[in-house]
Write a structure and sequence with these properties.
eight-stranded mixed sheet; seven-stranded mixed sheet; 14% strand
């Protein structure tokens, strides 16, 4: 049996190569990063520079700065012999077949007998890459196509061949799934694989339609983004993000490798002169002077400008460019396409061709439509894949629309029309249409579980407008938030209490708090609180705060283990609930922080006491009463947010023995498994006691803020809010010889938020945040 992959070599230290190396280090691997020799003192200077630049990357490549220590630099002239020591070598160099083959020839004598080798090529066929390669190396050679940035986009396309054994493929794919957190899609050895083949077609078709319809780029992106369930970068914003010059190379490769009758050839070439002029002028996208959009910083202000496709001139971008039909996107793609305006005609033009092209690719690219849909969702952040889109429109309607417009109908789409849909549900499992017309159960990796799975298989045990209670199986309950942004309101608080009552009264083994949403919880429902304040319903606000404290304490001290499964934003009250759970199984991309000061208040659901206690108990600060107070004051007072689960651990939001899951699809299953482990002999924790510095400590904290205010780094209301925070964290009128109980700190939290909630500057902060989504610096 082959050993697990622990040592990785990445050849090529450009943006993609460095990103892959960084993410392998995030997974805990020892990484060797190689590049060409730079003449001079340091022959590995190129790779060394890439490692140093990781700390400055935006978005951040590393989940924690210390992960850089797992990466060592080298070069392909002096260090190829080190490849014998690694488990996997991935080549990430220029898309030039001759250069790649030359590198493989140099590598061949150095790789170990079980070393897997792969290329990150996005365009070159596997058959051409392995031509002339020694059979022993070819039998362990695959394509592994990452999407940029590798840390954040979960798609990994894998191409293998008959020469590669199933055990080799399984070894690499299991590592990519479990350790790198990738959604692995197996592809046939065809040009562009799945993501680029369809994604580039969609972009090119949109580009052509924009010119044909005489639209501005703002109009095009406004219609092709959120109304279709596609990120707001849509088409032209996405090209800027990826790099306009890079897209040219991808298109050229597709054109040279696709068969002559492929529909891609019918649309390519439109706007070629526009692209060429932009590249010559240095407008290659965000990495250059700008692209279709640019930020003009003249006059001290940042103004987003858009390029006129006809003249090449830039003007302030029109932020209200969408046609009325864009609003129909919420009702579905069919109603949007049927709306009587130019925007709907534009969308129809693009969707009919792009969706039918997806059907045209089956079974050439893959016979698995679920893989195609997954690729577009994981690699391009589409909410629905093309076959899910066609089902939402109606496959019969798709055929009718194509025929009415004089377009050809792919054979596979006609099969779907005869069947009634591309997907169906059978006994709670997803069935997909195969090319032969049969329905096949969608296979997913073991130990994956989502709320969507539970919904297909049954109904919630309990539900209200903001939360549901589910049976996860094996006597574990799941509390799912589903309010807007999963913000905490009285209904969620009520469901937490109901979950504990049910679990304790009926002998359940544990509770998991988690959901499928991009963000675990954005904090308390600020709009609801502000509404009550504006009505002077202070009693309702105070009752909500008290109920939250009681529910969170109940979660912490109940008779069964509670495990949180955070992912995405976990802010304010969302961070506080995490710290009250027995354990966390956090997705690596969990962004946790107590950010209440930004809206003029302080954490009042136990966040102050919990963060101080954890900083002390986890030995993240020096001993003594003052260090945990100072560090908690820093984190809360400056609204610091951890940019990964690893960073959250170093800040005390995760405990040393909490788990981090790399693959989002495995998060709930891992959390459930953790709850079952904790259920054996479970005993609730004992309440903490605190020795806090009292007035002297408070004075020191207030003095520090006063100095910041004098230098202009803190606003007048920052001083007001942080003075209340200093009072809580220092323990009020206590001194370090006295013992402060948790209930004492909770009472101070309630008092302080009560005063701040009545302060006009805090109200102004809340209103500004709700209106703009940005903090007010007053």
């Amino acid at each position: 049996m082959s050993s697990p992959i622990e040592r990785v070599a990445v050849i090529g230290s450009g943006v993609m190569g460095a990103g892959i190396a960084a993410h392998a280090a995030n997974a805990g691997c020892q990484v060797l990063l190689l590049d060409i020799v730079k003449e001079g003192g340091d022959r590995s200077a190129i790779a060394n520079t890439a490692i140093k630049q990781m700390a400055k990357s935006n978005p951040e490549m590393l989940t924690h700065p210390r992960n850089a220590s797992l990466i060592s630099a080298g070069n392909i002239e002096d260090d190829l012999d080190k490849l014998s020591e690694v488990d996997w070598v991935i080549e990430v160099i220029v898309e030039n077949l001759g250069i790649k083959r030359s590198l493989y020839a140099s590598m061949a004598e150095h790789i170990g007998p079980e070393t897997i080798v792969s290329s990150n090529t996005s365009t070159l066929p596997l058959a051409e890459l392995v031509e002339g390669m020694p059979s022993e190396m070819a039998s362990r050679f695959l394509i592994t196509h990452f999407f940029n940035p590798p840390r954040y986009l979960p798609l990994l396309e894998v191409v293998t061949s008959s020469e590669v054994s199933d055990s080799v493929t399984e070894r690499l794919c299991s590592f990519a799934d479990e350790r790198l957190g990738k959604r692995v899609i197996m592809c046939n050895d065809t040009p562009g694989f799945v993501g680029n083949r369809l994604g580039v077609y969609f972009i090119q078709r949109a580009f052509k339609a924009t010119i044909d319809h005489g639209f501005t780029i703002e109009q095009a992106d406004a219609m092709l983004g959120r109304p279709l369930g596609i990120p707001k970068t849509a088409v032209f914003g996405l090209m800027d993000l990826v790099g306009i010059d890079l897209s040219v190379h991808v298109i050229e490769s597709l054109v040279s490798h696709l068969p002559e009758d492929d529909p891609f050839h019918d649309i390519v070439g439109t706007g070629e002169e526009i692209i060429q002029a932009m590249i010559e002028e240095g407008y290659t996208g965000r990495k250059g002077l700008g692209g279709f959009y640019r930020l003009n910083k003249e006059g001290g202000k940042r103004v987003k400008e858009a390029r006129n496709l006809a003249t090449g001139e830039y003007a302030p971008a029109n932020r209200k460019a969408a046609f009325p039909s864009a609003r129909m996107g919420k009702q579905g793609l069919g109603p949007l396409m049927d709306y009587p305006d130019e925007g709907a005609a534009f969308v129809s033009d693009i969707l009919l061709d792009s969706l039918s092209y997806a059907a045209h690719l089956v079974p050439d690219v893959t016979d698995n439509i679920y893989s195609i849909d997954s690729a577009m969702k994981a690699g391009f952040n589409w909410k629905r894949g093309p076959f899910e889109m066609m089902d939402s429109i109606g496959v019969v309607s798709m055929v009718e629309r194509l025929e009415a417009s004089g377009r050809s109908v792919p054979d596979f789409l006609r099969i779907a029309a005869e069947n009634g849909a591309f997907y169906s549900i059978e006994d709670g499992e997803i069935q997909r249409l195969a090319p032969d017309g049969s329905m096949v159960t969608v296979e997913r990796p073991e130990s994956t579980l989502t709320v969507a799975d539970l919904k297909r298989r049954g109904k919630p045990l309990k539900r209200n407008g903001s939360a549901s209670l589910w049976d996860m199986g094996d006597e574990v309950l799941l509390v799912e938030y589903h309010s807007k942004m999963n913000a905490v309101d009285p209904f969620i608080v009520e469901m937490l209490v109901d979950a504990v009552d049910l679990a304790e009264s009926e002998g359940w083994k544990g509770i998991v708090i988690g959901n499928d949403a991009p963000n675990f919880c954005a904090g308390a429902n600020l709009g609801l609180v502000l509404f009550a304040i504006n009505l002077a319903a202070w009693k309702d606000v105070e009752d909500f705060i008290q109920a939250g404290q009681d529910a969170y304490s109940l979660i912490k001290y109940c008779e069964i283990p509670v495990v949180a499964a955070p992912a995405g934003m976990c802010l304010g009250g969302g961070a506080e609930i995490l710290m009250h759970c027995d354990s966390q199984v956090a997705h690596c991309e969990s962004y946790i922080g107590l950010v209440e000061v930004g809206v003029g208040i302080i954490p009042a659901w136990g966040g102050c006491k919990e963060l101080m206690g954890r900083l002390r108990d986890f030995e993240l600060v020096e001993e003594g009463p003052m260090p945990p107070v100072m560090k908690a004051f820093e984190y809360i007072g400056t609204a610091q947010v951890a940019k990964s689960a690893e960073q959250a651990r170093s800040m005390g939001f995760l405990a040393p023995d909490d788990r981090i899951t790399m693959n989002r699809d495995r998060l709930l299953a891992d959390a459930k498994a953790r709850a079952l482990v904790l259920s054996e002999g479970y005993e609730p924790p004992e309440p903490r006691t605190y020795n806090l510095p009292g007035p002297s400590g408070r004075a020191a904290l207030e003095l520090a803020v006063k100095d910041l205010a004098k230098s202009g780094q803190a606003t007048p209301h920052d001083v007001v809010v942080t003075n209340e925070l200093a009072w809580i964290l220092s323990g009020g009128d206590t001194d370090m010889t006295e013992t402060v109980e948790e209930d004492d700190i909770l009472a101070m939290e309630r008092e302080a938020i009560g005063r701040l909630g009545r302060h006009e500057d805090s109200l102004a902060r809340m209103e500004h945040m709700l209106e703009t989504g940005k903090p007010l610096r007053n």
